[in-house]
Amino acid sequence: MALKVIIAITVLSLSIFVAYQLVDRFDPDTVKGKNVIITGSSTGIGEQLAYQYARLGANILITARRERQLKQVVEKCKEIGRKNGKYHFISLDMLDEGAPLKLINHAEKTLGSIDYVILNHALPYHLGEWLGSDDNFTALEKTFMANFNSYVRIASHTTRLLEESRGSLIVMSSTAGKMPMPYIAPYSASKHALQVIYLLKWVDWKRFYLLLHNSCYLS
Ligand SMILES: NC(=O)c1ccc[n+]([C@@H]2O[C@H](COP(=O)([O-])OP(=O)(O)OC[C@H]3O[C@@H](n4cnc5c(N)ncnc54)[C@H](OP(=O)(O)O)[C@@H]3O)[C@@H](O)[C@H]2O)c1
Predict the structure, then answer these.
(1) CATH no. for residue 99?
(2) For a substitution probing ligand 1, which of 42, 106, 121, 172 has the most ligand atoms within 8 Å of its CB?
(3) Is 211 in the pocket of ligand 1 (CB under 6 A)?
(4) Is the pTM of this model over 0.85?
(5) Which residue out of 53, 116, 187, 198 is catalytically annotated?
(6) For residue 141, is it within any domain?
(7) 28 Cβ contact list (under 8 Å, min separation 6)
(8) Quick check: CB of 108 below 6 Å from ligand 1?
(9) Is 73 helix (H, G, I), strand (E, B) or coil?
(10) CA atoms within 13 A on the CB side of 211
(11) Which residues contact 173 (CB under 8 A, 6 or more apart)?
């Protein structure tokens, strides 16, 4: 009898806990008028984030390499966003060491302050076994430059601005950054490296979010 009561209380407590976690406490007004930078926003998750932020009334600066796609995303943001909102893009290649600073300088010029920085861009996978070949090393170096070095540079250049605005840094990682994945060693390694540097440097910073994949995050 006592065991049944304990089990019932445990199940009830767990159900209440899970239900509480599922309550949506997001207030859309907290985003209205905020200045948001989204990288890797010419397509995929970044593009959809741009539309979502525009819909919520944010001002946005998007970046990726393909200018034509970025222009189209900005045009759509203008259609769905606030009439007096600011919508800008800058075409940059994150393999270029100077790109992170250019991005932040452009953000200060076009948006003024910065409230959210969403680091999302990633090089397409170089699929294949690790054989220590020249191709493997080229892929490793490029992947780390785009998926890791540029993230750390952008975050470092924006820390002061985010502190001033009490803004947030959001970093797109992957489950491949939590467990090793075969045939995508450079990608998986770059995402593991992100976990370490961000957790070491910014984990005590209360407005930092590390997105593991599309639906869950650590904060
Ligand atoms: N999709 C998933 O299921 C999934 C799962 C786990 C994690 N993620 C992570 O989520 C993020 C977005 O994924 P996604 O699927 O939306 O990727 P995606 O569709 O491949 O988009 C990648 C974006 O990054 C940009 N990009 C690529 N190389 C770049 C470079 N050298 N310089 C500047 N921008 C560059 C691309 O634009 P341009 O080609 O125009 O430069 C594009 O806008 C990535 O960090 C990825 O690792 C995705």
Answers:
(1) 3.40.50.720
(2) 121
(3) no
(4) yes
(5) 187
(6) yes
(7) 56, 57
(8) no
(9) helix
(10) 15
(11) 191, 194, 195, 210, 211, 212, 213
Which residues constitute the domain of residue 201? 28-218
Q: In this structure, what are the phi and psi dihedrals at residue 35, rounded to the nearest 5 degrees?
A: -100, 120
Q: What pLDDT, in 10s, does the model give residues 180-215?
A: 888 999 999 999 998 887 766 665 665 666 665 544
Query: How far is 56 from 30, CA to CA, in rounded Å?
Result: 9
116 classed as catalytic = no
User: How many domains does the chain contain in total?
Assistant: 1
CA nearest to 35, candidates 2, 82, 79: 82
CA distance linking residue 188 with residue 49, whole number of Å: 23
Tokens standing for 20? 């509480």
Among 194, 216, 211, 213, residue whose Cα is nearest residue 116: 211
Q: How far is the CA of 44 from the centre of ligand 1 (A)?
A: 7
- CA 187 to ligand 1 center in whole angstroms: 11
